């Protein structure tokens, strides 16, 4: 940037950088996957790797039975992929090149009764 193109110091300009650690990106991906799969965070496994400059996310979740959305597993996997791609882009500004979904069992979500 040349001197003429540099932004003028003022109230609207804040100098600095925003960085995300690998741990922060991993925890963000766990949260996004947890919400999309409707399971507990402890049941979600996430691995991040490089995919030609973009993120590759491998997520392992159980199948949540008894959820309001009883879509088939392929549709649930597509929804989980979409949630991760959009969430990482919108919240962290990261491009996701691939998402691998692995189902690792079944979790039954039971409605709790009030006594």
Keywords:
31% helix; 2 helices; 3 strands; Alpha-Beta Plaits; alpha+beta; three-stranded mixed beta sheet; single chain; globular; 115 residues
Describe the model:
The structure is a single chain. By secondary structure, the chain is α+β, with helices and mostly antiparallel strands. The chain has one domain (22-108): Alpha-Beta Plaits (2-Layer Sandwich), CATH 3.30.70. Helices cover 31% and strands 28% of the residues. It contains two helices and three strands. A three-stranded mixed beta sheet has the order 1-2-3, covered by helices on one side. Helix 2 links the parallel strand 2 (54-65) and strand 3 (96-108). Helix 1 runs antiparallel to helix 2 (73-92). The longest helix is centred in the last third of the chain and has 20 residues, at 73-92. The radius of gyration is 19 Å and the shape is globular. The N and C termini lie far apart (67 Å). The model has no long low-confidence stretch (mean pLDDT 86).
Give the gist of this structure.
Helix content is 31%, strand content 28%. The chain is α+β, with helices and mostly antiparallel strands and 115 residues long.
Q: Main sheet, how many strands, which sense, barrel?
A: 3 strands, mixed
Helix content: 25-40%
Q: On the 0-100 scale, what is the average pLDDT?
A: 86
Run of helices and strands = HEEHE
- Look at the structure and give the CATH class: Alpha Beta
**Spans of 5+ residues with little confidence (pLDDT < 50)?**
none
Reported by name, the CATH topology is Alpha-Beta Plaits
Radius of gyration: 19 Å
- Span of the ends, CA to CA: 67 Å
Helix and strand composition category:
alpha+beta
Q: Which architecture does the CATH hierarchy give at level 2?
A: 2-Layer Sandwich
Name the beta content range: 25-35%
Shape annotation: globular
Task: Output the number of helix runs.
Answer: 2
Number of strands: 3
Estimate nothing, just give the exact number of structural domains.
1
Strand order of the largest sheet: 1-2-3
